[in-house]
Amino acid sequence: AQSVAQPEDQVNVAEGNPLTVKCTYSVSGNPYLFWYVQYPNRGLQFLLKYITGDNLVKGSYGFEAEFNKSQTSFHLKKPSALVSDSALYFCAVRGPDFNKFYFGSGTKLNVKP
Amino acid sequence: DGGITQSPKYLFRKEGQNVTLSCEQNLNHDAMYWYRQDPGQGLRLIYYSQIVNDFQKGDIAEGYSVSREKKESFPLTVTSAQKNPTAFYLCASSIGRVASGANVLTFGAGSRLTVL
């Protein structure tokens, strides 16, 4: 079965500090991994994806994610957090049925001034 | 601009009533999806459609129904059989039918349903 785990309900970080939002996955076959961000009462916005190739993927708004096959992880990172990064972040994996996507439970990121 | 339009943004329903949520896309995407979002539970797939006149149940299809008569439209009906319908509903679409990196979900702004 395909699944995604986000072990932290909430991450708190001070503005200017690096941030990490964790994600681990379980999938049959090659993983297609995604990060999305959601602001209050809005839909999800695509940040970045890993399909193949370089394990460090760069995305929108200065975010990047590191794919680690041995640890089955795909952690989201940013070198310097902004208050405006405060939002709900979702990790997702696309399963063998390439039209089905599986989401984690989400991690609320709080960036304090 | 291309995108997904969901309506209404907010909807109130009395118990026992069916309601229909609209989802329209002008992205020329083949695949469309409905997700339900509850606090702390992430997104759960209700139904998805890979092509016109075809759709499949997701993980929590009971109490919901859909149709896909046009490529652009994928309405969701929340029936009276859905025991706990109060939630945030998200429609999404993707290119579909290709196992490539281009197959990324694009989301609408969501519809919040409250049962009174």
Would you give an account of this structure?
The complex is a heterodimer of chains A (113) and B (116). Chain A is globular. Chain A has 113 residues and is mostly beta strands. In chain A, strand 7 and strand 8 form a beta hairpin. Helices cover 0% and strands 52% of the residues of chain A. Chain B has 116 residues and is mostly beta strands. Chain B contains no helices and 11 strands. In chain B, strands 2, 4, 5, 6, 9, 10 and 11 form a 7-stranded mixed β-sheet that branches. The A-B interface holds A 6, 9, 32, 34, 36, 41-46, 49, 51-52, 90, 92, 94, 98-101, 103-106 and B 4, 6, 31, 33, 35, 40-45, 48, 50, 58, 88, 90, 92, 94, 96-101, 103-110, 112.
Strand content of chain A: over 45%
The percentage of residues in β strands of chain B lies in over 45%
How would you sum up the global shape of chain A? Answer: globular
Order of helices and strands of chain A: EEEEEEEEEEEE
Shape of chain B: globular
Overall mean pLDDT of chain A: 93
Number of DSSP strand runs of chain A: 12
Biggest sheet layout of chain B: 7 strands, mixed
Q: Please tell me how large the radius of gyration of chain B is.
A: 14 Å
User: Spans of chain B of 5+ residues with little confidence (pLDDT < 50)?
Assistant: none
Tally of individual helices of chain A: 0
From N to C, what is the helix and strand string of chain B? EEEEEEEEEEE
Give average pLDDT of chain B, whole number. Answer: 91
Number of helical stretches of at least 4 residues of chain B: 0
In terms of structural class, how would the helical and strand content of chain B be classed? Answer: mainly beta
> Major beta sheet of chain A, specifics?
6 strands, mixed
Going by helix content, strand content and strand pairing, the class of chain A is mainly beta
